[in-house]
Structure formats: structure tokens, C-alpha cells
Design a protein that fits this description.
- By secondary structure, the chain is α+β, with helices and mostly antiparallel strands.
- It contains seven helices and eleven strands.
- Strands 3, 4, 5, 6, 7 and 8 form a six-stranded antiparallel sheet that branches.
- The protein is globular.
- The protein has two domains: 3-14 and 34-46 and 55-196, no CATH class; 200-282, no CATH class.
- Helices cover 21% and strands 18% of the residues.
């Protein structure tokens, strides 16, 4: 296991507690369900019998993040000492970029422009298997001041407009609580914006090679005629892919699967030939 794989695996299993007022007593909590899973052996994404799609959070994060142990441990120490010792971990997620600014680093938003920001994937279109909360920023060189520290040394080596996230995974049942200790990661890819592709997937038939894309977690799927194959008899649908069924009648209230839960390609009608996968990193 790489350091990134190990820490993400750990976060997915982290005990984020229980509360008598949440629904976990009846349905279980994500961290409880995750204890006996082997994330590395699971598929990157899944298509269920109702046409719903899910992105495996473990693989998705491993493909996009690069764990920094030195900076993470410095952040953990900063968040657990002094006046912050009794504060919740989510305060660290919110406040640590401000500490970097106090040290003299400049922190920008996307491409280094604007301000850093916090995102909870629950608040928008999302296909991830669990909710994540993160503080996104881009480290920009500034005029450093104050005493030299291991944190300052580690960060100074990375100053090149490199984007980062301080990440917490929701391991509870109700989204209002049950978040893991935040961890520091650099973002991989050309500019780090792949972290925003949590609702983007591709559906592909390995029989006829027809492909569709979704940018809204499977609510609508697009088949672009200039790129994807089609036939005069059955052009690729631009929306409502799950209105298509393995029968002679297309449309209406039909579903993507038949009574045996066989998934049918909307283009060639072949059974169980559909693969779904998240958009790759740039």
C-alpha cells in the first residue's frame, strides 16, 4: 500500500462515533459497514438494477490525492494543542489555511485565483459512495515570517502554485455529524480540478462500443453524435437513457433492466455488456 492508499483506507474505517439521536442504530453507519471491506478489490464504479450509479470513494480519492505525512502531522499537532485542544476536528479543517496565511503563505482558490473555499459534496450533484467535506486551496509563495518549523520547511519545498485539500470523510449515518479527522493532501492531475468531478461518469457497452456521459450523477446521459457511434434505426439518446429497455418498445415507463435484472445496452440491446466508470484524472 502507498501512504495515500493507507491513510484513505484508515479514514474509511475510522470510528466517527455514535449518537442515540441519529439513524445509525437502525441502518448502521458507514464506518461500521466498512470494517470488513477490501476497498482495493472493489470496482471503481457500479450500475445498479434501477439504473443508479455509484463511484467507489476509495479508488476515486486514491486517483486524485497525494498524502503528505509531514504537513498532516504538523496540522494535527497544531489542532490538538493550546487553546485548540478541546475544539472539534472540523475547526481544524476550517481554520488551518488561516494559520498558513499567518505564517506568510498566500493561499488562493482554483488556479490560485480568488479565495480558498469549503465544499460538502452532499450539497450538490454527487455519485460518491460516501459524502466528503474538504477545504480547497492553492499554495502560493509569500513573505514568510516567524520561527522556522518543520511545517514551514515542508511547505516551502512545495511552493509552485500547487493545489491542496484538507479532507474529512463522512463516516456516520446522518450527514449532519460523524466526520473523520481531517487530513492534508496535495491534489494530483494538471490543476487539481479533478476533485470536482464527483458526479461525472461514462457508461460504455463493450459489445457495440456505444458511450454516454453524465455530469449529474446519472440523472441525464449524453450521447454526442459527432463522437459516439449511432445507427439510423436507433440513435443514441441524448437524455433519459434509463427509459430504454431490452424490448421492442422503447420509451414510456420502461427501465434499463428486465425482470431478471439483466442490464441492456440502449443502443445494441445486448445484455450485461455495460460498464460504468468515473471520468479519469487529467
Amino acid at each position: 500500500m502507498t501512504a495515500t492508499e493507507k491513510i484513505i483506507d484508515q479514514m474509511l474505517r475510522e470510528n466517527t462515533g455514535t449518537n442515540m439521536l441519529d439513524s445509525g442504530g437502525a441502518y448502521g453507519r458507514s464506518w461500521e459497514h466498512n470494517q470488513n471491506r477490501n476497498f482495493a478489490d472493489e470496482p471503481e464504479a457500479a450500475l445498479d438494477e434501477r439504473g443508479g450509479v455509484t463511484i467507489n470513494l476509495y479508488h476515486w480519492l486514491v486517483d486524485r490525492l497525494d498524502y503528505d505525512l509531514v504537513i498532516d502531522k504538523a496540522m494535527e499537532k497544531w489542532g490538538s494543542t493550546g487553546d485548540r485542544a478541546d475544539d472539534p476536528w472540523l475547526d481544524v479543517l476550517h481554520e488551518f489555511p488561516n494559520e498558513l496565511k499567518r505564517m506568510g503563505f498566500e493561499i488562493g482558490g482554483i488556479y490560485g485565483e480568488g479565495d480558498p473555499f469549503i465544499t460538502n459534496t452532499y450539497d450538490g450533484e454527487d455519485a460518491l459512495s460516501q459524502v466528503i467535506l474538504y477545504h480547497f486551496g492553492t499554495l502560493i509563495e509569500g513573505t514568510l515570517h516567524g520561527p522556522d518549523t518543520s511545517l514551514k520547511t515542508a511547505l516551502s519545498k512545495e511552493i509552485d502554485g500547487r493545489p491542496f485539500v484538507i479532507l474529512s470523510i463522512h463516516g456516520g449515518c446522518d450527514v449532519r455529524g460523524g466526520y473523520t479527522q481531517p487530513r492534508f493532501f496535495w491534489l494530483s492531475g494538471e490543476d487539481g480540478t479533478d476533485i470536482f468531478n464527483n458526479a461525472q461518469l461514462t457508461l460504455e457497452c463493450c459489445q457495440c462500443n456505444a458511450r454516454w456521459d453524465t455530469e449529474d450523477a446519472g440523472c441525464t446521459w449524453m450521447g454526442i453524435e459527432s463522437y459516439y457511434p449511432k445507427t439510423d434505426q436507433l440513435p443514441l439518446p441524448e437524455v433519459g437513457i434509463f427509459d430504454y429497455f431490452v424490448s421492442d418498445d422503447i420509451g414510456g415507463d420502461a427501465e434499463l433492466v428486465n425482470e431478471n435484472k439483466d442490464k441492456a445496452c440502449p443502443h445494441c440491446r445486448a445484455l450485461n455488456t455495460l460498464d460504468v466508470y468515473p471520468w479519469p484524472c487529467s
